[in-house]
What we know:
With 488 residues, this protein is of the alpha+beta class. It has 11 helices and 23 strands. Helix 1 (11-20) crosses helix 3, helix 5 runs antiparallel to helix 6 and helix 5 (228-243) crosses helix 7 (315-327). It is elongated.
Amino acid sequence: MISPIRKLEPVSLWNHFSDLNAVPRPSKKEERVIEFMVNFGEKLQLKTLVDGVGNVIITKPATKGFENKKTIVMQSHLDMVHQKNSETVFNFETEGIKMHINGDWVTADGTTLGADNGLGVATIMAILSSDDIKHPAIEALFTIDEETGMTGAMGLEGGILTGEILLNLDTEEDDEIDMGCAGGIDVTATRRYTEETTPENTTAFKIAIKGLQGGHSGMDIHKGFGNANKIMNRLLYHGFEHTNIKIAELEGGSLRNAIPRESFSTILIDKTLKETFLSEMNLLINSIKDEFNTIEPNLTIDIDPVETPLKVMNVEVQKGFIKSVYAALNGVYKMSPDIPDLVETSNNIARIVVRNGKISIACLTRSSSESSKKDLTNSLKSCFELSGFEVECSGSYPGWQPNVDSEILQILTPLYEKLFGEKAKVAACHAGLECGILGQNYPLMDMISFGPTIKGAHSPDERVSISSVQKFWKFLLEILKNIPERNS
C-alpha cells in the first residue's frame, strides 16, 4: 500500500523525503545516509563525490537556455536530531521514521520527524532528479553533522565549489528570508565527587519531570518554554534547604540544541522527614504548574517511592552543584540592538547527568555577536568554576553577518511579493545555520536562506505544513528561473 504522504504535492519532493526518512541518519553516524546520497547521484549519472569529512557534492549542468546564468550551490544537511517521548518504543539506529498526516501537517509517531533538514535535502533531490525544471548549473552540497558540531561545514575545503550563489534551505518559516544567523559554542562543566554510603533510616524517591514542549534551543529560546533541568533544580534546591535531601542520581535533557523536556532524579530523605518533604514538594509543584500553566499545560511532576540506592553524592559537592545550576543563566541573555525582536545571545542548559561519582553539565551558548558570546561564556565559566567544576569550551563556530546589499536578496524579496501578494520578513535568525562557516572558505559567495514552515523542531512534536511546502516549492522554482547572468 502506497503511503498517503507519497501522494502529496509536489509528488517528487515528498517521495524523496519518504525515501530519506527510511534511512537512519543521526549526527556523527551518517555513513548510511552518505551511501544513500552517493547511490542517488550515481544512479542519475551525475558527478558525485564525497569530500574528506563526509559531505556529499552532486553537480548537475544547466538546462537549455540557462548555461550563462551563475552557478548556484543548493545546500542542506543530512543529519537529523533524534528525540522521542520516553514512552515511545523506537530505535533510531535501525528504524525509519513513522510518518502520518494530521490535517495540514505531516508529523511523526512520538519521535522527531526529520523535516529539519530532510525537507531541504528532499527538495534538492527533486531538482536534481527532474527533467522538466529549468535551472542554472547546480552544485548540490549535502553537509554532515550540522546538529551536533557543524563539522561538515567546518571541514569543507575552499576551492571544491565554484558556485557564486548559495541557497540554504534550512529556515523554518515560509514567509521569512534569512540573511544572517547566530554562532555558538559548547560550554561543558564537569566535576568528580566521592560517593558516600547511604545513611541509615532513609527512604528514596524518584522525581520525574515530563510533558514539556522542548524545542529548538535557538529558534524557541525566547518563547519561555520550561527547561526540565532548571525546574528539577528548583525542586532539589527546595528539598535540600528544607528537608536536607541527598541526591543519588540525576539525568535530564539529551542534546545540546534541544530545550530539555524531561528530567529524572533519585533522592533520599530521612524517614522522619518524609511527610514534611512530600508536603513541601507538593506545594512547590503546584506553584510551578500554575506558573507554567499557559505555556506548558502538559507538564507533569511526579514523586514516587523507589528502592533505596547504596550511594549518594557528597553533601558539600551537592550544595555547590545545586547552587551553580540555579545561578547559571538559561534563556535569553541579550536581545539584538540592531534587529527588532531578534535574540542576540542565549544559553541552553541542555543536559545534566549525575552518576557514579561524576557530574556533567552541558550547555550550548549562541550569539550573533562574538564579544557577547564570549561575555556569556565567561559568566557561565565563572559560575561553575566557583563551585569547583572544570569547564571546557569547544566547538565554537561563527555567526553569519547580514549583508543588506546581497544581490540574491534583492532578487528574492520582490519575487516573493509578486508571487504571494505580501512582503517577506527579511531577518536574521538565532539558529546556527551553516552559512557563516561556509563563508569562511567562500567569502565571495552570495548567500541566502529560506524554507517551509516547520514547527517543534528538535522535539517529538516536530511537524511540517503541507501547504507551506507547496508554497516553498513554488517560490524555489521561480528563484531558479531568475538567477542572474554571469558577469562578463
